[in-house]
Amino acid sequence: MFKDKHILVSRREFLRDSAWAAAAAAFATALQERLEAQQKKPATPQTKPAAQKPQQSAPQPARNLPPVNIGFIGTGTQGQTLLQRLVRIPGVRVVAVCDIYPPHLSRGLRMAGPQAKGYEDYRQLLERKDIDAVIIATPLSLHAPMTIDALQAGKHVFCEKTMAYSVEDARRMVQVSRETGKHLQIGHQRHYSPIYAHAREMMTEQEVIGKLVHVRAWWHRNNSWRRPVPDKKFEELLNWRLYRKYSQGLMAELASHQIDVVNWFTGATPVSVMGMGGIDYWKDGREVWDNVEVIYEYPDGVKVVYTSILSNQYDGYAEQFMGDKGTLLLTNEKDGFLFKEPTAEELGWEAHAKKTTGKGGSTGLVLDVTATKKKGTGAVIGGQKMAAGYELKDAYVLELESFVNDVVRNGQKPLCDAEVGFKTAVAVLMANKAIEEGTKVTFTPDMFQV
Ligand SMILES: NC(=O)c1ccc[n+]([C@@H]2O[C@H](COP(=O)([O-])OP(=O)(O)OC[C@H]3O[C@@H](n4cnc5c(N)ncnc54)[C@H](O)[C@@H]3O)[C@@H](O)[C@H]2O)c1
C-alpha cells in the first residue's frame, strides 16, 4: 500500500483550515505520481478473463445468501444516489464509508447505517479484510489510483464513469484487473437499462432503421455546473469538474455516457475524431470548455455528431440513430421512439404500438419495453423477460444489483467491464485532444487494445 505522507489527510490535518487546500492539491499530485510510477512496473502475465455468462440481474432474496460487505469511497452527489439504492439490495452491508469532506462523510454514514465505519483515508478502508468490494464515486482524477489500490487489495471494484483521467490510467486499470483477477465494473448505467437494451435489439437484430448512416447525440443544459461553496478552501474539492487538474470536462462528464451507447449499439469504435470547444459563456475562472462540438467517424462512413452545451437547455439530452429505413430516438435516458422513413415496410407489431408525434407532425412508434412485440418469443435481456410483466427499475439499481449479485457473488464478468469502459474512455479523451490541438485524431486499432 502506498505510504506517501503527503496524501495522508488525517482528521487533525483536515481540520487545520489553512493547510487543507494545499493538502488536497498535494493529494492529487502525489496520487498521480504514484500512478505514473505504477505504470512503469512491468506487467505480470494476464489471467484469463472469466467467460461472459448471461446476466442475472433480478434481485435475489437475502435468505441463504452470504452477506456482501461493501466499502464506499466518495459520498458526494453520485455516491449518495448510488448508496441510497445499494442499501436496499438484499444481503448488502455497507460496512465502511470514506470521504474527505465532512458533510458528505456524515451523510454517507447516515445512509449506510449503524454498522458502517467512517474513514478519511481510503487506504485504511482498503486494509479491511472483511470488505469484498468497493464502490468509487470520487472526482475523475482519483478513479485510477483508487481503483488500482482497491484491486491490488483484493477487492472487486465498481468505479464511476468516465473510467479514468487519461488513456494511460485507464489502460493500467484494465491491466491490474487482469493481473489481480478482480473484476472492474464501470458506471455507464445505460448498459443495464432495459430501455437501451431493447432499443439496441430493435436496431441491431430487428433492423428497424435499416442501414445505419448517421448518429446525433447531445446533452444541453442551461446552468453553470458550478456549485456554491461554503468556504473558498473547498472551491476545488466541490467544483473539481471545472478544473483541468481533476476533470476532463463535458466529454468525460456527459458525452462518455452517450459515446458508450454509440460504441455499444454499433459494436464498433471510432475511426477518427475532430472538434471544437470553448469557454464562451461561463467566463468565471473555469478551465474546462462550457461547450463542445465534436464529429466522430465510425466504420462504413457513419458520422456521429455530438454537442454538449451549458447555455441552452431546449434540446435536453438524447441519442438519435438514423438509418435508411428509420430513426431511433432515445431521450432523457427513459423514452425510446421509432420514426419510420416513408419507404420502410410495415412492421408486424406496428398497428398495436403506442404512437407519438414527432417533427413536422410525423408519427412515431413508442418503443415500449413491456409491450413492443419481438420477432421471437421469450426474449431475455439482462436476465429479464422483455415482453411480459417486466418491472421497470432505474438503471442505477440494475447496475448495482448486477455488480452485487452477478459480479461479487457469482464471479461473473461485468456487462460494462473494464474493457468496455476503456474503449469509451479512449474515445472521449481523444476528442479532448483533438479539440485542444485543433487537429483530427485518427484512431488505430491498437489504441483500443490493452
Ligand atoms: N453515472 C452517472 O450518471 C453519474 C452522474 C454523476 C456523476 N457521476 C460520476 O461520479 C463521480 C463523482 O461525481 P459527483 O458528482 O458525485 O462528485 P461530487 O463532488 O459530488 O462527489 C465526489 C466526492 O468525492 C469526495 N472525495 C474527493 N477526494 C476524495 C478522497 N481523496 N478520498 C475520499 N473522498 C474524496 C468528495 O469529497 C466528494 O464528496 C464522477 O466521476 C462523475 O463523473 C456519474
Structure notes:
The protein is α/β, with parallel strands linked by helices. It folds into 2 domains: 5-191 and 402-417, Rossmann fold, CATH 3.40.50; 193-391 and 429-437, Dihydrodipicolinate Reductase, domain 2. Helix content is 33%, strand content 20%. Strands 14-15-13-12-11-7-10-9-8-18 form a 10-stranded mixed sheet, covered by helices on one side. A 6-stranded parallel sheet has the order 3-2-1-4-5-6, with helices on both faces. Helix 4 (102-112) links the parallel strand 2 (92-98) and strand 3 (117-119). Helix 6 runs parallel beside helix 7 (167-180). Bound molecules: nicotinamide-adenine-dinucleotide. The site of nicotinamide-adenine-dinucleotide (NAD) has 26 residues, from helix 3 and helix 6.
Number of strands: 18
Portion of residues in helices?
A: 25-40%
CATH class of the largest domain: Alpha Beta
Report the oligomer.
single chain
Termini separation comes to 25 Å
**SSE order:** HHEHEHEHEHEHEHEHHEEEEEEEEEEHHE
Level-2 CATH architecture of the largest domain: 2-Layer Sandwich
Number of helices, counting only DSSP H or I runs of 4 residues or more: 12
Rounded to the nearest angstrom, the radius of gyration is: 22 Å
SSE-based structural type: alpha/beta
Under CATH, the topology of the largest domain can be stated as Dihydrodipicolinate Reductase, domain 2
**How many separate domains?**
2
Bound molecules: nicotinamide-adenine-dinucleotide
Strand content: 15-25%
CATH homology group of the largest domain: Dihydrodipicolinate Reductase, domain 2
Main β sheet profile:
10 strands, mixed
* Average pLDDT over all residues: 85
Low-confidence stretches: 1-61, 372-391
Major sheet strand order: 14-15-13-12-11-7-10-9-8-18
